[in-house]
Amino acid sequence: MSECDPGTELREFEDAVLTHLKSLYYTAYHLTRNRANAEDLTQETYLKAFCSYRTFRKGTNALAWLTRIMLNSFINDYHRSKREVNWEYDGEWHENWKDTKTFREPSFSLNEHEILGDWIDDEVKAGLDHLPIKYRRAVIMFDLQGHSYQEIAETFNCAIGTVKSRLFRGRNILKHVLRNYAKKRGWGDGDNSGQELPSSISGTKH
């Protein structure tokens, strides 16, 4: 990022991040399976993003950048059951943000109903829990959140072909776990195991 007024940078940061707060919280909930931990993880992501905002390239995918921060936090911190917020920042850079009293931490007024939505049945939520995490992330981001192959590839720093492979494998697992659910809705028969989840499950259109 080019040098600019700290107040302007702060506004740019909040404009870039706050619009994605609901999506980040949604992802955190699916990763942690717990409302309080999802709030902690989203807050940690927000703070880490604030402290490293100058590494973000304007014009690139802000949500992919934020999701990478969240996934790294989840893997590095939550699997070790850490609850404190840990992040590294450049002290010299931090001095440039002297008006930090204007920094607004995210509020979490969203309830579970808003995060998960009416369109995800309990059976589907349980089925997602059976997926290995790399497949679950891909299915959630593509079929539930509506991200493109390119966005998911950028988030996980992998090839689009890898994303498609994970989606294919994840859907196949879901097909077996939710066999009765799928049969009742006409999904998962024959050769369609690699197709997108139906709108009755995903709530999105691609």
Count of discrete domains: 2
Could you say what the CATH architecture of the largest domain is? Orthogonal Bundle
Biggest sheet architecture: none
SSE order, one letter for each helix or strand = HHHHHHHHHHHH
Which superfamily, in CATH terms, is the homologous superfamily of the largest domain?
RNA polymerase sigma factor, region 2, helix turn helix motif
Q: How much is the radius of gyration in Å?
A: 19 Å
Low-confidence residue ranges: 82-105, 108-119, 190-206
On the 0-100 scale, what is the average pLDDT?
69
CATH T-level fold name of the largest domain: Rna Polymerase Sigma Factor, Chain: A
Class based on secondary structure composition and strand pairing: mainly alpha
Count helical runs: 12
| Anisotropy-based shape | globular
Helicity range of the residues?
55-70%
Strand content: under 5%
Termini separation? 33 Å
CATH class label of the largest domain: Mainly Alpha
Report the strand count: 0
